[in-house]
Amino acid sequence: MRFMDARRLSAAFGPQGARQIRAIAPGDTRWHGPILSPQGSAHFVRIAQRNAPQVPDFDVARDWIGTQWLAVQARAHGRGIGANAAELPHHN
Hints:
The chain is α+β, with helices and mostly antiparallel strands. It is 39% helix and 10% strand. Strands 1-2 form a two-stranded antiparallel sheet.
């Protein structure tokens, strides 16, 4: 997995698993685990690289915010990816 911030770690591995992963010492590239996720899966992780937190430039932030907004709107209106094709307008 790439680009995992604290929020994404917690979502993927649960709070306990995220704490275990964040506790791995910087520079330690060995495999660690098992780390249990809330779904009951066991994971082994290796941190190949750590990047310092950074503020994205405006264009990256704008694209991300737009994508998130569209996803929220789609869920709110029941139009997620793969909307029911029968509900789409037909043009003959």
